[in-house]
DNA sequence: GAGTATTTGTACGTATGTATC
DNA sequence: GGATACATACGTACAAATACT
C-alpha cells in the first residue's frame, strides 16, 4: 500500500553529532588545518560508542569538510585556492563524484566532486571541484583553459 | 623525516568488494532500478562480515551508483534525465557536496553533488549535479535558465 | 635512530529498531 | 501479521601510520 510517511523522526545520534561538529567547524572552533578532537575524546564527550563517533566524522568527510589519515588526528580541510577556468563557447559541463579507483589514482580526497568540461570537438577536461570556479566570460571565446588564480 | 611511502598495499577487503560490485553494475549485471543482492547474500558470497559488506555498498552509495532505503533492497540508481542549463555571460559556477542537512531538506540522494551558478548580480541558482548539464551557448547571453531537456 | 604512545583503519560479532514487501 | 532488508548502536581486537620522547 502507498502509505505516505508523515512521521517526524528524531535524527540518528551520529547525525546529531555530525551536525554539532559541523556547526563548530563553521563557527571556527577548529580552524582549517588544525586537528579535531580525537575519536576517543569524542566518544567521551558525547558518551557514545566508537562506531557512532566514526559514523559522525564520516559524514563530515563525505561532505569534504574533514580529512583524516591513519595515525594522525583528523583535521578540518583547508579550502584550496580556486583557479578560474574559462568555459569555451559551445562546451558542456557536468559534475559527478569520482569512483574510489579514480580517487586513489588521482589522489583525490573524499567529498570532492569532479567537474568535466567537454568542448565542441569532444575533448574532455577534468577538474577537482574544490579547486576551480568556472567562468562564462563576458568577452571572447576559447577552450576551457585555466587563466588566473583567485582567492 | 619525509619518508615517502613506496609500499604497495593490498586494498582493503571492502574496497575489493566495492570494486567488484561496481564492475558488475557497469557491466549491467544489475540493471538500473533493479535490486542488488541483499547484504546477507553478499556476506555469504564473499565470506565476510556484515560490516565489511555494508562498507563496500556504502562506497557505491557515496559514488552515487547505488541507492538504498530501509526495508527495501538496494538498487542501482537510475540515471536521471539531464536538463540543459544555459550559463549566462559573466556568471560563475562552482560545485560542492551538499551537507547532510541540505540532503534531507531538499531530499537529495547520497553521492549527488550540487552545482551553484552565480550570475553577475550575485543571484545564485542551485542544481542537482546529476540532473543537469551546463551549456555555454554559442549565441546569445542570459541568466542561467533551464531551456530544454535532453536524453 | 629507536622505542613507545597515540590515532585512525580494518574487520569481526551482536542486538535491536524500523520500513518495506 | 510475518518475513525480509536495511539502519542504528553497542562491543572487541588487531593493523598500520603517525607523533612524540
Which residues of chain A sit in consecutive blocks of at least 5 with pLDDT less than 50?
A: 1-6, 141-151
Biggest interface pair, residues each? A-B, 39 and 39 residues
Shape of chain A: elongated
Into which percentage range does the β-strand content of chain A fall?
A: 15-25%
Oligomer: homodimer
Taking the alpha carbons of the first and last residues of chain A, their distance comes to 54 Å
Give a count of the beta strands of chain A, DSSP E runs of length 2 or more.
8
Q: Structural class from helices and strands of chain A?
A: alpha+beta
DSSP helical segment count of chain A? 4
C-alpha Rg of chain A (nearest Å): 20 Å
Number of structural units classed as domains of chain A: 2
Question: What proportion of the residues of chain A is helical, as a percent range?
Answer: 25-40%
Largest beta-sheet details of chain A: 3 strands, mixed
Average pLDDT over all residues of chain A: 88
What order do the helices and strands of chain A follow?
A: HHHEEEEHEEEE
User: Which sequence of strands runs across the widest sheet of chain A?
Assistant: 7-3-8
How would you describe this protein?
The structure is a homodimer of 151-residue chains. By secondary structure, chain A is an alpha+beta fold. Chain A has two domains: 13-76, Winged helix-like DNA-binding domain superfamily/Winged helix DNA-binding domain (Arc Repressor Mutant, subunit A, Orthogonal Bundle), CATH 1.10.10; 83-150, no CATH class. Helix content of chain A is 28%, strand content 23%. The first copy, chain A, has a three-stranded mixed β-sheet with strand order 7-3-8, with no helix packed on it. In chain A, strand 5 (114-118) and strand 6 (124-128) form a beta hairpin. In chain A, helix 1 crosses helix 3 (50-62) and helix 2 crosses helix 3 (50-62). The structure holds a DNA duplex (21 and 21 nucleotides).
Amino acid at each position: 500500500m502507498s502509505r505516505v510517511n508523515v512521521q517526524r523522526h528524531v535524527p540518528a545520534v551520529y547525525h546529531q553529532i555530525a551536525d554539532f561538529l559541523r556547526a563548530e567547524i563553521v563557527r571556527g572552533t577548529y580552524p582549517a588545518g588544525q586537528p579535531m578532537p580525537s575519536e576517543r575524546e569524542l566518544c567521551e564527550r558525547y558518551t557514545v560508542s566508537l562506531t557512532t563517533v566514526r559514523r559522525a566524522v564520516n559524514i563530515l568527510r563525505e561532505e569534504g569538510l574533514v580529512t583524516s589519515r591513519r595515525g594522525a588526528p583528523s583535521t578540518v580541510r583547508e579550502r584550496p585556492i580556486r583557479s578560474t577556468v574559462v568555459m569555451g563557447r559551445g562546451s558542456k559541463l557536468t559534475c559527478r563524484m569520482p569512483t574510489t579507483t579514480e580517487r586513489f589514482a588521482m589522489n583525490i580526497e573524499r567529498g570532492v566532486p569532479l567537474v568535466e568540461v567537454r568542448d565542441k570537438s569532444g575533448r574532455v577536461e577534468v577538474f577537482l571541484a574544490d579547486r576551480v570556479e568556472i567562468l562564462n566570460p563576458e568577452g571572447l571565446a576559447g577552450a576551457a583553459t585555466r587563466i588566473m588564480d583567485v582567492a
